[in-house]
Amino acid sequence: TNILAFESSADETSAAIVQDGNKVLSNSVATQINSHKRFGGIVPEVASRHHIEWITRVLDDALDQAKMTMDDIDAVAVTYGPGLVGSLLVGLMSAKTVAMVHDLPLIPVNHLAGHIAAANFNQPIQYPALALMVSGGHTELVLMPKENQFEVLGETRDDAAGESFDKVGRLLGLNYPAGKTIDEMAHRGQTNIKFPTAMAREDNLDFSFSGLKSAVINHVHHAEQVGESINQDDLAASFQKAVVDALIGRTKKALAAYPVKSFVLAGGVAANMGLREALDDLLSKSFPKVTYIPVPREYTGDNAAMIGAAGYWNYKDGIFADLSLNTDPGLDFDLI
Ligand code: ATP
Ligand code: MG
Ligand code: FE
C-alpha cells in the first residue's frame, strides 16, 4: 500500500510516499527556518505563504524521488492538527484536491501520532508501548496499549521541552530554533552549574520546564550584574542536563508503573544526543527487557514520511475522512 502524505502544521512543508507504513520511498521537506529566524519564532502569516509556495513543489519532488506517478498511489494522508490553522489548511486543501482529482481515499492524521509512528522506520513498535513525545509544542508520556491507541499518562504544565531549548537559546542570542545548537554546545561544555530538575518531587508523571527556564535567566542576569563571564557551552551543558534529568526521571517512573514491550522516543527534541544516550543508558540498565526504539534522527523533526506511517495505521483501521474534513489546531490525545 503506497500512501502519499502531506505535512504543513508548522514551518516545514513536506510531502512523502510511504509503503506499508514503514518503507520511505521519498520524503521531500522544505524548511522555512531562514524566513522566521530573524523574528525568533514562527510568524503564522509568513508560514502560510511559504506553504502555498512550496506544497506543489514538494509533491512533485516526492513523486520524482520515488519514481512514481499518481497511478501508483493508493491513499492520501494529511496532518489535520495540532498546529497553526493557516499552515494546516494548506496541506489539508492540497490533500483534498489530490484525493478528489485522483479518486483516492483521504486519511486524517494527528501530527503527534505521526511523530510516534516514525519509530517504525527504526524497527517495528511492539505493544504495549510507552512513548516519550518531546517536541516544540508538546511534552508527553503516551501509553499505547495497542497500535494506534494513545493514552496520555503525563504532560507538561507549562513550556514544552523544545520550547525551553528555544527560549534559553534566545537568551544566549542563538538563532531559532536553538535545540540543535544547544545540543552541540552541551557536547563541548561541562555540567558545572546546578539547575533545579523540573518537578523532581511531585508524585505524578507531569513535566514543568518554566522554573528551569527562570533559573537559567536568573543565572545569566546575576552573572551580568556582578560582571562575571559565562561559559556558554557550560551553561548549555548544565541546562540540557536538567532537561534530560527531568525527562529521564518521569520516564523511569512510567516504565516502572506500566510494563511495556517497547519504549519509543519521538518528536523534534528526540534528535538530542544527550537525551538519546541517557535513555539508552536507562533502558539497558534498569529495563533490559524493554526494547528501546528512538525515531531515527533524520525523521525526528517535522516531515511527511511520519504522517505516511501514522496514516497507514488509520488505513488499516478504516479511518478515513470525506472532503468536509476540517483542521483541528488544538488536537491532542486523550488524558487518562
Ligand atoms: P509539535 O510537534 O509539538 O506540534 P513542532 O512540530 O513545532 O511542535 P518539532 O518540529 O517536532 O516541533 O520539534 C521542533 C523542536 O525540536 C524545536 O523546539 C527545536 O529546538 C527542538 N530540537 C530540534 N533538534 C534538537 C536537539 N538536537 N536538541 C534539543 N532540541 C531539539
Ligand atoms: Mg518545526
Ligand atoms: Fe512536530
Q: What does this protein look like?
A:
The chain has 336 residues and is of the alpha/beta class. The mean pLDDT is 96. The strands form 2 sheets. It has a 6-stranded mixed beta sheet, with helices on both faces. A 5-stranded mixed beta sheet has the order 3-2-1-4-5, sandwiched between helices. The chain has helices spanning 33-36, 44-66, 85-101, 111-117, 161-171, 179-188, 210-225, 232-257, 273-286, 304-316, and strands at 2-7, 12-19, 23-31, 75-81, 106-110, 129-134, 139-144, 151-155, 262-266, 291-294, 334-335. Helices cover 42% and strands 19% of the residues. The chain is built from 10 helices and 11 strands. Bound molecules: adenosine-5'-triphosphate, magnesium ion and fe (iii) ion. Adenosine-5'-triphosphate (ATP) binds next to helix 4, helix 5 and helix 6. Its EC number is 2.3.1.234. One of its GO terms (molecular function) is tRNA N(6)-L-threonylcarbamoyladenine synthase activity. Its cofactor is Fe(2+). Residues 23-308 form the Gcp-like domain. Substrate binds at residues 133-137, 166, 179, 183, 272.
